[in-house]
Predict the structure.
Amino acid sequence: MAGFPLKGETTPTIFEKSEPGRRGTQMTRSDVDTRPLDELVPARHLRAEPPRLPEVPESEVVRHYTELSLKNHHVDRALYPLGSCTMKYNPKVNEDTCRLEGFAGLHPFTPQASAQGALQLMYELAEMLKEIAGMDEVTLQPAAGAQGEMTGVLLMRAYHIANGEGDKRRRILFPDSAHGTNPATAAMAGFDAEEIPSNASGCVDLEALRDNLDDTVAGLMLTNPNTLGVFESDILEISRLVHEAGGLMYMDGANLNALMGVTRPGDMGYDIVHFNLHKTFSTPHGGGGPGSGPVGVKEHLAPYLPVPKVVRREDGSYGLDWDRPESFGKLHGFYGNFGVMVRAYTYMRMLGRRGIRETAEASVLNNAYLTALLKDDFDLPYGRGMHESVFSGTSLKKRTDIKTMDVAKRLLDYGFHAPTVYFPLNVPEALMTEPTETETKQELERYAAAMQSIVREAETDPELVATAPHTTPVSRLDEGRAARQLDLKWSFPEDTDA
Amino acid sequence: MSFIPHSEADRREMLDRIGVSDVRDLYDDVPEELILEGDLGIPEALSEWEAVRELNRLAGENRSLVCFAGAGQYDHHVPAAVDHLIRRSEFYTAYTPYQPEVSQGTLQVIYEFQTMVCELTGMDVANASMYDGPSAAAEAAVMSRAVTRRGRVLAARTVHPHYRKVTDTYLRGLGGKLELVPAGPDGLVDPEALSAALDGDTACFLVQYPNFFGCIEELEPIAEVVHEAGALLVVAADPVALVLLRSPGELGADIVVAEGQPFGNAPSFGGPVVGLFAARQKLVRKMPGRIVGATVDTEDRRGYVLTLQTREQQIRRAKATSNICTNQGLNALAATIHLSLLGREGLREVAESSVQNAHYAWRRLQDVDGVTPLFPDTPFAREFAIATRENSRSILERGFEAGILAGVSLSRFASLEAPDGLLLAFTEKRSREEIDRLVDVLAG
């Protein structure tokens, strides 16, 4: 059992380590002939006191954040099987290439002639994504998956407006197993988000789809493989029905890792697909971001993509085209999360055409193997998925009173992160497990053994599981109290005293 | 090269256990007609060294220039320790902190980040980050509509055109649009013109501080007329200027957003950077994005969790305050470490050096023929605009020859309705010698 360092240790905030008059890193001082500040900026604009940032020497800052880092589980420690998050290994070389001065030091308003390498990289990345998805155009601008979804629904809107149906097509459909961002995005773009039920095998219910399709539907948002990990085998029929009703097909690309190089969204009838470079293409999740959510579209939607578009000109140079009158607008301040694109580009060039397909196949192989190891220990209401399987703890709970949340917490004691729990919503006590292709057979066996051990503990010593975790920096936290007694920032003693 | 770890023997054993003979048997659910024949039309695999060589070549095609461009992204020094710490894989290979017991590092960092954002902006509460400054402004506009249940969103024409464009894009999805309020001849919002534009259906007014041209807006009278109309004041700020200027919170802002790039983040061709988002306490339940709160564990030890999650898409779905999920966590970490390293005095010095450098350039340019300040009598901090007799793009060309990025051309942005000229930005990194060279470039 691999416990954490710093069990039970509280780290004071950086503000509590501050002492007046101490200095961190010395920054450059201006060498021009200076004037008193209030001769430059009228005193009425100046604040009386600078912001109360901590005063801590560099060595202590480094120790503080090093100590905090040790309290995180992370991919470089052990399996991180969060379903639909694709927590694969993040190659180290990506972290070097994105920091090359020619990339990291590039100001976004650098004239295009001085940014040819960056523009070429973006152009080629888009070309590779087009090929993988079977799409005609790609924008790299969205900063994350949810912004990719926003791009997708704004494209739907622009398309229907251009066809004179903007006022009529106000509904976006999605299955009940969809990620929360799908309905949230549809609503944020002014659409009515409508859920359709899944059938007994967890896929889109064609009857229910037919019943919901009419000339008020803007489109269908459908992850494939869906959030149960199951490939929507009726995808061609689904696309046909949606198109027949005048709607558009949107693929949430969260689960593209299972498919790339094997089959393509464009061939399935999708009009729009978003990619998650931070899932499928190995860029790190950074404790919550940054991501990058490029969007691929078929020709009929290309005119509406956001500005600017990266183009290759006739003379072989690369540029940014801002003159796109039918574009729906802009979602990012500049061109998207370029540093993330450099990482994904590096990865894709290393994998090459075959490596991309083999990666998909290995992700499916790993999940099938892990599922085979665990299928007798947990329920599997919808069967084995492709790159991920959604187990259920329903039987375990009936038998032992141990809930999925307890299993998840106990896993932390075994040195693993927990799967995604209680999602998708159509599986009770869900444990959505995605091992990814970068885990070894032996690591998968270690994880399965931990899960089996937890089942035995639930049967013989349920209290141990119900009160887990026991080896982590903190034990279970009172989330109710956090929401009731809001404490969202450090209270400076002088404020509290007053 | 690929990152698949299996030996042939492992692979065989795995297939046997699964009960299939070939991995492609696991794709049975994919209709035959959808299976791709042949390989993808993308390049052959590269070794790590070949990839590095190719990436070096591409990076080498980008020319490094002495940077006087700003307009939202600034060339500040980032202490070496920032990158060393954010390269700890404990931070960068972790996910969103869904299991708080093994994510206390990330969670405490966000709590410290929220505190620093509140200190800078003078606001009560901050979130864990947005994608960038412009999308944070757009989210503030969307939030203002939800808070006030009103439809119109106004912005000063002097707000960064990209902020306006992104905000307008978000609003158009909701059937709205961004309406512009013109500036007076001094480059500042005219409270009377603003007052005339406000009405009972106005949700908020968006103003930049200092504005796109570098002019320091008079926020107090603006806040007064905005609040009189029952609308919210949204301020998009330069966070470095905030170190010296009275905070938007003190001057009446309801929501403050900012581009946090100047703190710890490389320009990186515009991203990834980090949007800051802060608001008054009473608006906290309408805020977008992740928020971290302190609480206690079962043994009464202090710990941190994601809180108020019922605002968010993973719980609330179509009724969420925003669709944001992934944010810019690692960039927020960089900002937090950067601010800790500089500290109270260091950050003040950076801001003041930037202002001193800007004003030195301003004084030098008084004597340069063909260059005139766009707003000669309006206070500015570290960025200002000049009108140029010569085409600004040819000046940029000349700068390029001299290895200097001589600002941002105003002619890029038709919506500013400004004469041709340049927007010049200054940081603590620019030396007197570099500024003198800039002046030479501008003088021709």
Notes: The domain at 359-482 of chain A is CATH 3.90.1150.10 (Aspartate Aminotransferase, domain 1). Chain A is about 35% helix and 10% strand. Chain A has two domains: 94-349, 359-482.
